[in-house]
Amino acid sequence: MAQAAYALGVLTSILCAVLLIRSYRANRTPLLLWCSLCFVGLALNNVLLFADLFIVPQVSLELWRSVIALAALMLMLIGLIWEES
Q1: Is the pTM of this model over 0.90?
Q2: How far apart (Å, rounded) are the C-alpha atoms in residues 15 and 8?
Q3: How many domains does the structure of the chain reveal?
Q4: If 38 and its partner were Cys, which of 10, 16, 76, 84 is the partner (CB 3.0–4.6 Å)?
Q5: What is the 3-state secondary structure (H, E, C) of 6-48?
Q6: Which residue range is the domain that position 51 belongs to?
Q7: CB atoms < 10 A from the CB of 31, how many?
């Protein structure tokens, strides 16, 4: 049951990233670009979380997940600061 919940989280985050990318391609709003890049990173983070817990549990991917999550959130922060100035 836990695998299904994590898989659903992965699919949801990928869907959010895809929808944001589609919206950016239609509107070309810079903030949508930053948000979509952030969500791509967060989706990758969720994929690595699923892999870490269920596919290769003997290998710790925690450092990679943390670096990717930090980079994704930094992209969002840069986008928000860039749009404000």
Answers
A1: yes
A2: 10
A3: 1
A4: 76
A5: HHHHHHHHHHHHHHHHHHHHHHCCHHHHHHHHHHHHHHHHHHH
A6: 2-84
A7: 14
